[in-house]
Amino acid sequence: MGIFGFFSKDKKESLDQGLQKSNENIFSKLSKAVVGKSKVDEEVLDELEEILITSDVGVDTTIKVIQRIEERVARDKYLNTEELDIILKEEIAALLEENNSQDLLDFDIPEGKKPYVIMVVGVNGVGKTTTIGKLANMFKNAGKNVILGAADTFRAAAVDQLILWGDRVGVPVISHGMNTDPASVAFDAVKQGVEQNADVVIVDTAGRLHTKVNLMNELGKIKRVMQKFIPDAPHEIMLVLDGSTGQNAFIQAKEFTKVTEITSLAITKLDGTAKGGVVIGISDQFKIPVKYIGVGEKMTDLQIFNRKEFVDSLFTKKS
Questions:
Q1: 263 labelled as ligand-binding?
Q2: Residue 174, pLDDT score
Q3: Binned average pLDDT, 10 residues per bin, the chain of 319 residues
Q4: Is 181 annotated as a binding residue?
Q5: Cα–chain-centroid distance for residue 169?
Q6: Residue 204 annotated in ligand binding
Q7: Is 125 annotated for ligand binding?
Q8: Which of 23, 98, 140, 222 has the greatest number of C-beta atoms within 10 Å?
Q9: How high is the pLDDT of residue 105?
């Protein structure tokens, strides 16, 4: 069992496997940094700083982590290098906790928010449509009625792909085809959600328009038509980021937070890369909760983000 009872052995194994490259990258560097050293000194901390930055934790977040460890070294006077991974885990988990990364317990929706409307944003190629399909599957498995809206109408593949996911998962997809008005798709999706007493409506949106102003206007219009049916919709605006792009994911997060309010993050494709540290940096820098992470191809490999289990998988030396 994981640290929390609900976190199953299978999920933990998937998480370990998905973060294997990141874990190996960190520990191959860490073992070199502490070779021949028994205590955590300035030299070890300098090496650790470099390891975290090259693992895509990001400079600002790395500096915070190092400062926290320095304080512990000063307090405990003599810290053994063998304890370094334990201290790392504790300090990073504490940092994530401060950044509002609260652990969800299940694919549940807040009381009184029905249908719960999620608007999904993110550039093309980050795994946005796949994430929506997997999310729909998870909600459905949790006993929820789900409706999808194919409002990324600028790209034929996005509409077709979402329809395929709808068929695969067994949930209805509202689509007007390509080059149609995205806001009218969102309007119909939310309208059907209300009429059919759905639990969750997930609306896909365009990955990129010609300018930031265009994108801002388009997302604003989508929000306004949703609010004709549900005044406080969308309840969640989720940004999907590709974890394998490392620092580029930071740039995307920065750009999207300028054009619309982002309330949650899904970070995908962590299994194909050694850049797992990006989850920590993005959570810290943007103060937006990481809600889901993608650690593999399977339907169940989109996991609810559990910070303690994540940090455990990333910073526990595998035998």
A1: no
A2: 97
A3: 54 88 85 80 90 91 93 78 83 81 66 92 91 95 95 89 96 94 96 96 87 87 94 95 91 90 93 87 90 89 89 80
A4: no
A5: 21
A6: yes
A7: yes
A8: 222
A9: 58
Q: Is 268 a known ligand-binding residue?
A: yes
pLDDT on residue 2: 38
281 is in an annotated binding site: no
260 is in an annotated binding site: no
The reported pLDDT for the residue numbered 253 is 92
Contact indicator for 105, 224 with CB cutoff of 8 Å: no
Q: Are 151 and 189 in contact (CB under 8 A)?
A: yes
Is 72 flagged in the annotation as binding?
Answer: no
Output the pLDDT for position 83: 81
**pTM (2 d.p.):** 0.91
Phi/psi-derived region of residue 22, left when phi > 0, alpha when psi is between -120 and 50, beta in every other case: alpha
Question: Is residue 122 marked as binding?
Answer: yes
Distances from the Cα of 159 to the Cαs of 18, 38, 166, 228, in angstroms?
28, 57, 11, 24
Q: Is 170 annotated as a binding residue?
A: no
Compute CA 87 distance to the chain's CA centroid, rounded to the nearest angstrom.
Answer: 24
Q: 35 among the known binding-site residues?
A: no
Return the number of other C-beta atoms located less than 10 Å from residue 69's C-beta. Answer: 22
Q: Are 129 and 200 in contact (CB under 8 A)?
A: no
128 is in an annotated binding site: yes
